[in-house]
Amino acid sequence: MINFALLGAGRIGSMHASLIASSPQARLCYVYDTYQPAAIELATKYDACAVESVEQILNDDSIDALLIATSTDTHVEFIIKGALAGKAILCEKPIDLSTEHVRQCWEQIKDCQVPIQIGFNRRFDPTHSELKQQLSNGGIGQLQQLIITSRDPDIAPTKYLKHSGGIFRDMIIHDFDMFRFITGEEAAEVYAIGSTLIAPDLADIGDVDSVMITIKTQSGKLCHINGSRRCVYGYDQRIEAFGSEGLLQSNNPRPNSVSKSTASNTDSLSILNPFFIERYEYAYRSQLNSFITSLINKTATSPSFTDGMKAQIMADAAQESLSSGKPVLLS
Questions:
Q1: pLDDT tens by residue, 194-210
Q2: Closest CA to 180 of 246, 132, 114
Q3: Model pTM greater than 0.85?
Q4: What does the alpha-carbon distance between residue 125 and residue 148 come to, in Å, rounded to a whole number?
Q5: CB neighbours of residue 202 within 10 Å
Q6: Which structural domains are found in the chain, ordered by start?
């Protein structure tokens, strides 16, 4: 049994609490949030204890793991404190908005030898992971091109976006990780373009809402990522892998598979899932199970801290390319 402390009692923290509580191999012991009423409400719901400080958690030797679901600007602090206290860590992405802070964090914890997993949950999506498996098994020969579609159902409030780090670090960082996961390679060149087609006021904070990124791997494979902050038909998350001997596609699951045909339309389907929690519910559960299994079996966790850092470096390169209008070369 793995004893967890949850840091963060917001929307995604609440989801994580539910998953921990439903796992036969885990127990939710503590909930921390700077907004105490939220921590108390969530802790009460799952028979855990709400605490006023993280130190109360770190000083409890019975706690095996921290699940960090607080705001991004606190991740590094809690990772360092947790690692130094010998706690295993599952942290939501990104590690931080600054790659330099991520590197500094690693320098402080690299000798702690505690398991650290970064929350790139899409690796655990059943269709995405099956595409990866078939590709690895040679199902379409040699991969030549990868296309990743990433579209949110609606744009976040400007108040949030002002502090999000920009579309590449906040949203597309998931897709940079999927690029690395599926190709098994690193980026050699990144070129990004973007526009404010949805919320023109984003230009005032140096951000965009619509992007296209092209990436070349070290072996010459090509990847295209298209992202949008608003998609009127739901949460659109698809992957297409084109190879020397065929094509693989990971499409969107739907709330149900019923199709309807009438005099006015044929094979009408349900709309897509409304947002990431519904779309990736299975992936979040599988992510947690993978983390728990790694702790029990004392095997390496994945995605690792290094995976989080490398996705961050790609986000930085995309931002630099967007600003300069030129491709960015990565070593």
A1: 999 999 999 999 999 99
A2: 132
A3: yes
A4: 14
A5: 23
A6: 2-114 (3.40.50.720), 123-329 (3.30.360.10)
